Amino acid sequence: MPNTQDRSVKSTEGVNRPKRSLRARICRWGLSLLAVLVLGLLIFLLMPSPIKPAKWSAPTAPSFEEAGPWKQNNKLSSAQLVTDAPQFPEFITFDKEGRLYTGDSDGKIYKVPFDAEGNPQKAQLFADTKGTPNGLIFDANGNLIVTDVKKGLLSISPSGNIEVLADHVDGKPIYLANELDIAKDGSIYFSDTSDYGKVTFKEIAENKPHGRLLKYDPMTKKTTVLLEGLYFANGVALSADEDFVLVAESYHYQITRYWLKGPKKGTSDIFADNLAGFPDNITRDEQGHFWVGIFTTRLSFVDQMHSNPWLASTMAKVPQSLLNGASAPVKHGLAAEFSPQGELIGSWHDPEGKLYGVTTAASHNGYLYIGTAPGGSKGVHRVLLTK
What is the pLDDT of residues 12-67, one digit of tens each? Predict the structure, then answer.
C-alpha cells in the first residue's frame, strides 16, 4: 500500500517552505531597513551643527492658574471679526479720520472705514509694497510709514506712492525691518529683528542676540544704531513723554527700555521680563499704558533646549521645513497691558484658541483691536474694552 503518511509530510513541507522563505525575506528587509535607519541616525548625530548655542536657564514661566495679572480668563474669546481681507494683519494703526490700516504677509496694505455707528465696512486695497509690511504708522504729513521685512523702511503717500527711506545702516543692510514708532519731531524708531534676515528655528536654538534698535532722522535722512545685541528685536513703542522707547526681545521673553532723555539718556535697562510668552508688537494707549501682543505662550521644549546646548545643536540640524509645525503658536490667544513703569496690569486670554497667534493689541475708540501673523488665526478682530 502507498505510504500516505510520507505524502502528507512531503505535502506539508512543500507548503511551509514558501512561508519560511517569505518570513526570511521580510526579516532580511527589516534588518536592512533598520541598518539604514541606524546609519542615517549616526550620520545625523555626527554631522556638524550649523550653530554653537549659548546655554541659558530661562526663568520659570508665569502660571495661568494662580491668582495674579497672568491668571487665565476669556476676555478675547468673544472677539468680533472686523475684516478677513488681510489674512494675517501683523500690525494695526488708524489715520486721523479713524480708518483702520493693516498690512498682509503678501505685501498688500488695506484700509477699513467705519460707518457712523462704528461698524466696519468693506476693506479697500490701499497699496502693495511687493514685500511683507509689518509695522505701519502715519507721520504728521499724512504719509504711512512702513517697516517692511523685505524692503526696509518705507514711506507711502496718501495717493499710494512708495518711497524707500532706509534699507542700509552703517554700510550694512537693514536685514529684517519689523516694527516702529514715530516721535513728535518726526524721528522714526524701528527694529531690525535679526541679521539672519528671516525667522528661523536656528536662531532660537542658538540663543544669541542678532537684533538692533534703529533711528531714522527725517531731517538728515540718516539712520543710526541705538542698540545692538537684542534677542529677536520686535515691537517698538515710545513713552507718552518720549523719554524712552521700548523694544521687545521676543526670544528672551522681555521688553527692553532705551532712555532718550534724562540722566540715563543713551543707556538701556529691562522694562519687563519673564513674560508668559513671546512678546511681539507694542502699542501705547491714551493713558500711556502699553499693550503687548503675545504671539505664542511659552514652549516648554524651547526652554529645556536653552539649558541643554547639545540638544539645541542637534535640533538646529533638522531642516526648517520639518520644524515649522513644531514651532507653530499655541492655540491660546494672549495680550498683556503694562503701566508706564513696567508693571503688569492685566492679561487678556482666549484659552479656547479661536483667536491665537496674537501680534498686536491696539486700543481704539473703546475696542481692543487684535492682529495676527502666519501660523495664527486669520483676519482683524476686536473686543470691547471692558475690564
Answer: 555 556 667 777 777 877 777 777 777 666 676 667 888 999 999 999 999 999 99
Are the C-beta atoms of 370 and 293 separated by less than 8 Å? yes
Q: What are phi and psi of 282, to 5 degrees?
A: -125, 135
Torsion sign, CA atoms 96, 367, 100, 115: negative
Strands annotated E in 341-379: 344-350, 358-364, 367-372
Domains of the chain (ranges; CATH) run 80-384 (2.120.10.30)
CB crowding 281-319: b at 16 or more within 10 Å, else e: bbbbbeeebbbbbbbbbbbeebbebbeebeebbbbbeee
pLDDT tens figures, 138-169: 999 999 999 999 999 999 999 999 999 999 99
Quote the pTM value: 0.89
Average pLDDT, the chain: 92
Whose cell is 543713551? That residue is 266
d(Cα 214, Cα 202) in Å, to the nearest integer? 24
In angstroms, rounded to a whole number, what is the distance separating the alpha carbons of residues 289 and 62? 21
Whole-number Å distance between alpha carbons of 8 and 196? 75
Written as nine digits, the cell of 154 is 518705507
Is residue 325 predicted with pLDDT exceeding 90?
no
The burial of 175, by beta-carbon neighbours within 10 Å (0-12 exposed, 13-18 middle, 19 or more buried), is given as: buried
Residues in the chain: 387
Place of cell 479713524: 98
Question: First vs last Cα of the chain: how many Å apart?
Answer: 101
State how far the Cα of 135 lies from the Cα of 178, in Å rounded to an integer.
6
Residue 257 has, within 13 A of its CA and on its CB side, a CA count of 17
